[in-house]
Amino acid sequence: MKMNNLIRATRLFIYGISINVRHLWYVLPIPVHIKERIKHSAFSKFPFLFRRLAAYRNWQEYISFKDNIDLIPTDDLVLGGENADLYVPLLKTPPPEQLPVKLIAFYLPQFHAIPENNKWWGEGFTEWSNVKPAQAQFEGHYQPHLPGELGYYDLLNSGVQHRQVELAKLYGVGGFCFYTYWFGGQLLLEKPVENYLGDPSLSLPFCLCWANENWTRRWDGRDKEILIGQKYSPEDDLAFIQHVAQYMRDERYIRVNGKPLLLLYRPNLLPSAKETAQRWRLWCRQNGIGEIYLAYTQSFEKVSPANYEFDAAIEFPPNNFMPLVVTKKVTPINSNFGCTVYDWRSFVQLSRNYHKPDYKLFRGVCPSWDNTARRKNRSSVFINSSPGGYQEWLTNAINDTCARINNPEERFIFINAWNEWAEGAHLEPDQKYGYAYLEATRRAIQSISSCKSEIETEVNGSQQ
Question: Which fold is adopted by the domain 72-463?
């Protein structure tokens, strides 16, 4: 017992040091392109010092793709992407059938007021409070993002979720993944998914992702001021899985061969994600749920899910990717400009030659990304996103998924996101593009006539 406690204490100590070093690196007042040069030089000259780090492995993967990324022209950037002003109207046709993969869109519930947000951010605060006043930071910058037919909705209005489900099904989205915010038994923003559970007429499948970070004043720069923190413990593990079991028992809950799919946002924040997984699995076996299917988002790391005794990992762009930095290519509007600008087309380029992982990995895509609504003049902005580019990326992800994954029930692709309006990542219609990104989603998934893995193709070929 003492030895186990010592090992656990050592892990926590090392983890604490790594977190502090990482935080220091991120807050250093050095331009991103100079940081990348420093990292490249250090990793190249002293690989033996860094080879155990996830950052080093990510860098190696980036280097292997760099030749492809560098093919993207940056001298003639088209701000907003191709057909940037093309408004696509609502489609008048039945929903598609027999889709080759299941597209799951991450779903943010922060579109209704709660007492905690009223206290921390001001009375009546919702995600729209950040979105509405957003301002362009450079010439051609697409801000603010103005919602289309759904308007500045309140998720406590049941009609909103009904319309979201209709739109998702019409355009080939196979499910929502609701973020759930659990802090040692205290729940925030849970009402939308509770209402969803209580309304069987909302027929789109769904699953949950525990967003297991502390809440801080990150949006205004005070990262160290914790508003509400996590309270990890063995007891908390059991209380959490008991809570989410009510959703897992619902017939609409997404399953893999009968196993409910549960996502964890950041397993590396847990004292021992492996022990947590063991507790969750045992509790579910003993309480009528049966076996469960665990996956984690690669939001801050890229390791095998086996490290945590999980079943799969999920790409989470733009996190953990290394797109081209093109900040110098834009013309700032104000003198206090401090944004970092990337070329979104890097994602499409990488998807043309996907790296094949040696573990179960679900692809992820994002229609666009721009968190200016939250970070203002210190935001991260991806330019050159477009419905056409997004359609190609998603098509490549579908083809890769069909080729790599043999089990049809594991052919998932995750979209970030359905409604991340303050991060400029939303499939929901806006006033600029209309339903363009939704239609691109449908076109991509309908472009695949059949979905056969490489093994199935080889077997069929040998039988001919």
Answer: TIM Barrel (3.20.20)
